[in-house]
Every structure is written in structure tokens, then in C-alpha cells.
Design a protein that fits this description.
Oligomer: single chain
CATH topology of the largest domain: Rna Polymerase Sigma Factor, Chain: A
Number of helices: 9
Radius of gyration: 18 Å
Largest sheet: none
CATH superfamily of the largest domain: RNA polymerase sigma factor, region 2, helix turn helix motif
Shape: globular
Structural class: mainly alpha
CATH class of the largest domain: Mainly Alpha
Number of strands: 0
Length: 195
């Protein structure tokens, strides 16, 4: 039987080092990231619980198998999110389906974040929009914008982490977030006149 502590204060890096010596320690990383990654996979559009479990399982299997090649100077969280992202995209390709955003429970918080950082004063958001409206709007976005907005506003990742996860230059992250917010604004408020 595994003797994994339920509350482990070690850093991810320390747990990775411990896992390389004792593979049972990987359970600590699973416990730490399972709920976060399941939520992220669902937000990317893997809707069915069984499908989410499959993508999550493949993520952890791939992380476990490749732990020796993990570059410890990088953040483990970015590395495992990148694996989860890639596994979700592989899942979509296999099923020939288009990713659709899902589970946007923090709609008011996201609207405030996006609205407060909108650079155009005429961009107004209806604060009464609910999670369904946000989910629908995100599903209508170009996937490259949806991915960065989900990582930034729902997963609360910093630009550098997003760059690591999506494997794009950090400058591109800012550009994609800016353009994604504009596209989301036009989807949520199609009557806004752009000058």
C-alpha cells in the first residue's frame, strides 16, 4: 500500500527528484495536479467525464514515462499543463471534433478581468452575462485565442508559463491575449461599433 502524505509541502521540483528515486512518490504529483488538469481539459472542450478521465490518464502516463527528461530548471506545472494540452489536442484530432470551451463558472470574474484590461473605452461588457454566454462565446473564438484566454483567466497562468505550455514566444502570448480579448468582446457584444 502507498504511504503518500495527504498534505505535502514539498515543492514540485523536490517531489520530482524524490520520484526519480522512488517512483511511488509520483502519486503526490497526481494528487496535486489531478483536479486542476481535469478542469483545464474540460475547459479546452473535452466534455464527457470518461473522455476527460482518458485524457487525464494519458497525461499522467506520459509525464511518468518522461520524468527523466524533465528539465528541472523549468516549472513542473508548465510542463504537465503542456502535456495535458497536447493530449487534449490529440484527443480532438483522433475524434475529428472541434474543441469547445466548457465549464466557465467564474464568468463574472473573467468578464471583469477582460473588461478591466480592455484598451478601448468603448468596449462595454454586460455584467449580467452568465456562464452559458461565456462558454458559448469562448467556443466561437479561434482556438489559438481560446487557449491563451483559458490559461490566463481561468487557470491564472503568467505569460511565461503560457509560453512554456503552448511553446510559443512570450511576446506572442501578449499579442494573442490582446487579440483574443478583442475577439471575445466582439462575440459577446456584436453591436459594438469598431472605429
Amino acid at each position: 500500500m502507498l504511504s503518500i502524505p495527504t498534505s505535502d509541502n514539498r515543492s514540485d521540483s523536490d517531489i520530482v527528484v524524490a520520484t526519480l528515486a522512488d517512483r511511488e512518490q509520483f502519486g503526490v504529483l497526481i494528487e496535486r495536479y489531478e483536479a486542476k488538469l481535469r478542469r483545464y481539459i474540460a475547459r479546452l472542450g473535452v466534455r464527457e467525464i470518461d473522455d476527460q478521465a482518458d485524457v487525464l490518464q494519458e497525461t499522467f502516463i506520459k509525464a511518468y514515462r518522461n520524468l527523466n527528461s524533465f528539465e528541472q530548471s523549468l516549472a513542473f506545472s508548465s510542463w504537465i499543463y503542456r502535456i495535458a494540452h497536447n493530449e487534449a489536442m490529440t484527443w480532438f484530432r483522433r475524434r475529428r471534433v472541434r474543441p469547445e470551451g466548457n465549464l466557465v463558472a467564474e464568468s463574472d470574474e473573467v468578464l471583469e478581468l477582460i473588461a478591466s484590461s480592455a484598451d478601448s473605452p468603448e468596449v462595454q461588457f454586460d455584467q449580467g452575462l452568465n456562464a452559458t454566454a461565456i462558454t458559448t462565446a469562448l467556443a466561437d473564438l479561434d482556438p489559438k485565442y481560446r487557449e491563451v484566454l483559458i490559461l490566463r483567466y481561468f487557470e491564472h497562468k503568467e505569460y511565461e508559463e503560457i509560453s512554456d505550455i503552448l511553446q510559443i514566444p512570450i511576446g506572442s502570448v501578449g499579442t494573442l491575449i490582446h487579440r483574443g480579448k478583442k475577439q471575445l468582446s466582439s462575440v459577446l457584444n456584436p453591436n459594438t461599433v469598431r472605429i
